[in-house]
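Supplementary Text 2. Reproducibility record for the structural model of the 233-residue chain.

All settings were left at their defaults, and a single model was retained for analysis rather than an ensemble. We include the record here because the model underlies the residue-level annotations in Supplementary Table 4.
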Amino acid sequence: MRFDIITLFPDFFHSPLASGLIGKALSKGIAEVYLTNPRDFTTDKHHRVDDEPYGGGVGMLLKPEPVFAAVESLPVLPQREIIFLSPQGERMDQRLFQTLTQVDQLVLLCGHYEGVDERVVDHLVTREVSLGDFVLTCGEIPALALLNGVLRLLPGTVAKEESLKYESFEAGLLDYPQYTRPASFRGWEVPEVLRSGNHGAIEQWRQAQQQQRTCDRRPDLYAQWRQAQQQPE
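Retained model, structure tokens:
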């Protein structure tokens, strides 16, 4: 998979892209990441990428010309999405990450200032995506989150791919509690069922814990899960 990140601050990504599972996945060729700066496509002597909004208002907007030029400079793979990271977009979730693993190329447009000229959204962007119902200083943070969420689902990134099936949100529920050695720490004991060696009982316990934890912490998710269980096959 190819990731193209359109950003005014390429340096933001240098350390994260070289670290941890992301760095290993990129070094193995599981995906490729390219950074493109819209400022390189400006034509005025000041390399200006922003301007005041028509009609007045507070703040500045990214101009359409350098953004279009930056995206149009990229190669076009058969299946691609051009994503604008915006508080107005659909929320990131596991379902979205899974969907995006099916495309060949993700172009991630990092917003700045008060946003971007609407013509970019109307005529260039194919999808708007938000990290959540809040506003950040830049689009690089949600772009990195999206890249991480998609990349880790690609075959070969996570060593034990079977573990991906049992993570939070994969089955519509939160993850179950997990423990490691020692069995007793400061008087707090690992549940006996996990030390029993009875795999059937362990599986039942984990499923019950997933349901209870989701009900307690995310009743919205639990309601969705219950509704899905009642749907006919």
